[in-house]
What does this fold into?
Amino acid sequence: MSKQLRELKGVGEKTEKLFQKIGIVDTEDLLHYYPRNYDSYDEPMEISGLAEGSVAAVQASVVSGVYVNKVRNLQVVTVTAADHSGKIPVAWFNTPYLRSTLKKGSIFVFRGRVVRKQGRLELEHPEVFTPAAYEEILHSLQPIYSLTAGLSNKLIVKLIRQVLKEQPLYNEYLPEELKEKYHLADYSFAVNAIHFPLNMEELLTARRRLVFDEFLLFILAIQLLKEKTEEASNAFPMRPVWTTEQIIEKLPYKLTGAQANVWHEIERDLCGHRLMSRLVQGDVGSGKTILAFLAMVMTVENGYQSALMVPTEVLARQHYEAFLSLKEEQGIESCRPVLLTGSTTAKEKREIYAAIAAGEADIIIGTHALIQEKVVYRNLGLVITDEQHRFGVKQREALTTRGNPPHVLVMSATPIPRTLAIILYGDLDISIIDELPATRLPIKNCVVGTSYRPKAYSFIEKQVREGRQAYIICPMVEESEGLEAENVLDYTQKLRNILPADIHIAPLHGKMKAKEKNKIMEEFASGEIQVLVSTTVVEVGVNVPNATVMMVENAERFGLAQLHQLRGRVGRGNHQSYCIFMQGNQVEETSKRLEILNKSNDGFYIAGEDLKLRGPGDLFGIRQSGLLEFKLGDIYNDADVLKKASEAAGQILSLDEDISLPQHAVLREKLMSYMKDDLENLGL
Ligand code: ADP
Ligand code: MG
It folds into this structure.
């Protein structure tokens, strides 16, 4: 059914490679490469009514000759266009072929962005249509796909049209009664209409069906996996050890009640007759790391190795250092930790691999991929993932040593309302740390406009003088054409001119080399760098308790859950901490969302409110970061569909536990292929 892309007209080796870059290998992948947004082609407007910043169409005649200028290395083609209401200059970049089209006196529809150049409005790089051609697409929604350099939207559209034309019908795999019960569109219709909807209603109907499918397949898959994990018995139950009691006793703080409870749950799991598959959800700063360390120590003292996986190198290093200090402070002789990350040299890696294989290293901390590749464990008993949200059966199988699969503990700070967590983590037992250390002062928040910056800077200066540190978050790494948002590089320069010279300011972002990032993070952790201007690379897990100010520029560009994670970088020590959300626009919607953060520091409350604020119409709004990334569905925006899909999954499984009945044959096929490909993409 599915063909290689090469078999399509217009796809050569080069194009094929480009598609591979965005994960498209065959026509099936292509069909499920959904638009990231849609352009709507509305009635042309009058030139006098054009508003700066909008994208608009005008029907106008060319009333001037064609001028061609060179600006830097751009060739700019300009004409003046006019309708009965007025005139406007229209400019294109690097499109010399337009010169012959734009004959004086001819009428076109121009559709593009209205910008202000040297004080007057101009139509920038519009698409050009004959009035008849525009009439044809009027009111339609045209798909916009995410591209990669060298691949045009036009080409993707053309190829998808080609595939849909050759094979307009797709096998329905949902039982009829389910489709009726949940008012779902046909699969074939949905696949067609998600790319080329005739109107908004069609788009919404198609999208709802596909989102439902995504969720349903996901839920069915984890339910099937769950059965597998439940069968997995714990061949060698562990015993509680004295060392963990001592560690808890000697910590410079007392575990919160919630931490103690969760620790006991973990301890019980490790000693039980079934393998542990547990999710620990705890708000930022609730103290998850120490629980991970305790579990690892217990595992080691029972004679097994344990591994801790994290998504970033910065975090891996931090955990490693933290474990080393714990080991030193408390004289924990039994554990021999190693760190494995991308910047570990080849030579070091070989040595570490050998130590792991020989069982000479027993606490292995590192980034995800590294722990899976090439590492042969002697006897891995426990895998913990921090901030990864998911850990699949496949990964567990990959780590199985001597025929024994390890226990799995997943730690996440992403607060998902319980009703959704039960659905999404159906295969895991859930523990919640619902208490912050009592010594913590609640973070003080404010939402302000950019005019507040000078005050914010002098506040930061004051905090630095008191010995504290600050984070400033910018949405972008460097300046980018057309995007009005603060960027780390320019901001750092600017700030160096504003704050006194003896305050050490440094930039941090994901495009830096790992070595450089590590160095900066270490200098920040040790207090040498006082103000860190960073992208969201510090979002997860980073722990510098001495930092007390978090200032987020362009706060409107982040999702609420993400802002909450960012804020979680402060308020981790005993000093009063502050969070400044800098709102770069004046949209009321944004103010309302930010107000939620302003009012509360409770991640679960925030997630719940976020859910209420978002309507089903919010299709392409800000996605929550870090959470399971479905192609179309968003667990927050589409929470209602998620619940319906969960209900439907329950119904299917109650009839057909392992999805083997003949009426589910097509569904089963779909599910199997989903489990093979998509779950892997979701990190399962
Ligand atoms: P998270 O849950 O966000 O991963 P961490 O485990 O990094 O949080 O803990 C944040 C900070 O709180 C660390 O500096 C840690 O030492 C400290 N901490 C952990 N538990 C407690 C506690 N019960 N009382 C006081 N401080 C604690
Ligand atoms: Mg953490």
